[in-house]
Design a protein that fits this description.
Layout: H1 26-51, H2 65-74, E1 80-82, H3 88-93, H4 98-106, H5 115-118, H6 129-143, E2 158-163, H7 170-181, E3 186-192, E4 195-196, E5 199-200, H8 210-215, E6 220-224, H9 228-243, E7 249-254, H10 273-280, H11 284-294, H12 300-322, H13 342-356
Helix pairs in contact: 1-2, 1-11, 1-12, 2-9, 4-12, 6-7
Length: 366
């Protein structure tokens, strides 16, 4: 397993991957720290909003910030990401307004953001189905000639994110087959957070998850998913392979879901507090903070500014979510297809007529 930063904040030398983070100066490291702190604040605020009845549901990413921020920051602007439904850290790195993510969980929108503006697809709730969408998209940009040109501003790749449970789904296995045989510019990024809802990883596979990629002929690497620097490095290598036309890579980021599967889940029913505590000692944010403190690169002024930014961020999230009104029912007919569709338009017209039938006629004055 690739690890560059230990749980105690010590930097390890790795002959293959250390050179890939050599350009990350103290400012860049503080930027990664800021990313993870604000993504966690988003997580805690969203969880609180659900508990207060402002959201119908929320899937936490607590503990997985390093895997998401590290890999997300390795992407080029022209790369395209296909998330599942808890990639809040990747969304942050792609420049989304984080309040837009919560439109789906408040029930006012099916997505909430412009996918083309950020090269970040909508969240997918059907486990593993988006891996095939990502593979098809990668094959498309390959056929468009946007791979292997040698131009770093043009060569593109696709990253798809999924959990350990998705590796047991047929769609995900089909994605591996298509990506491998077509040499697609695709990075298959598995966040192995140990639990597919209440099913542990050892109930899903008799071998390490990373070995599944090798069975399809896809180069595979296992990385410490709580190490933001290692996640950045292995993703950068995989993207370089994809950009140059050398095909897909499978990354297993070995991490832990410190929160619940969603806010409707009770993890105390299937895992122990001792296990949770063991993983809290490997917290990805604490790890980078220890490194910055040890090297004298975490000034008090920076931390004070970050605390103030986090407070303002949380306040804005609460305000924006509570301001999300129920949209007109007719919006369900929008964005069904890329263009106008006769059946959808007919259904829209029927529904408008149906809704109008409930309008109260004005009283007649005598």
């Amino acid at each position: 397993m690739v690890q560059l930063l230990t749980p105690t904040g010590e930097l390890r030398d790795h002959p293959e991957y250390s050179p890939r983070i050599a350009h990350l100066d103290p400012d860049a490291l503080r930027g990664l720290y800021r990313d993870m702190v604000l993504v966690r604040r988003f997580d805690s605020e969203s969880t609180a909003l659900q508990r207060q009845g402002e959201l119908g549901l929320f899937p936490q990413s607590l503990g997985q910030e390093a895997a998401q921020v590290g890999s997300g920051r390795a992407l080029a602007p022209q790369d395209y990401a296909f998330p599942s439904y808890r990639e809040h850290g990747v969304a942050w790195t792609r420049g989304l307004d984080m309040a837009d993510i919560l439109k789906q969980f408040r029930g006012v929108d099916h997505g909430g953001w412009d996918t083309e503006a950020h090269n970040f697809h909508l969240y997918t709730l059907v486990i593993g189905s988006h891996t095939l969408h990502a593979t098809g998209y990668a094959m498309g940009i390959q056929r468009d000639g946007a791979v292997g040109t040698g131009d770093p501003q043009r060569d593109a790749a696709v990253v798809t994110y999924f959990g350990d449970g998705a590796t047991s789904q047929g769609d995900t296995n089909e994605a591996f087959v298509f990506a491998a045989v077509n040499n697609a510019p695709l990075v298959l990024f598995c966040q192995n957070n140990q639990w597919a809802i209440s099913e542990s990883t050892d109930r899903q596979s008799r071998v390490p998850i990373v070995d599944r990629g090798k069975g399809f002929g896809v180069p595979s690497v296992r990385v410490d998913g709580n190490d933001v620097l290692a996640c950045y490095a292995v993703t950068a290598e995989a993207l370089e392979r994809a950009h140059s036309g050398n095909g897909p890579t499978f990354i297993e980021a070995y991490t832990y879901r410190m929160g619940a599967h969603t806010t409707s889940d009770d993890p105390t029913r299937y895992r122990s507090s001792a296990e949770e505590e063991a993983w809290r000692r490997r917290d990805p944010i604490d790890r980078l903070r220890l490194h910055l403190e040890t090297t004298g690169e975490l000034p008090a002024a920076f931390l004070a500014e970050l605390d103030a930014e986090a407070e303002a961020f949380g306040e804005r999230l609460r305000r924006d979510v509570r301001a999300m009104d129920k949209p007109p029912t007719s919006t369900m007919f929008e964005h069904v297809y890329a263009g106008a569709h006769a059946v959808v338009e007919a259904e829209r017209a029927w529904f408008e007529q149906y809704e109008a039938s409930f309008e109260v006629a004005p009283e007649v004055t005598r």
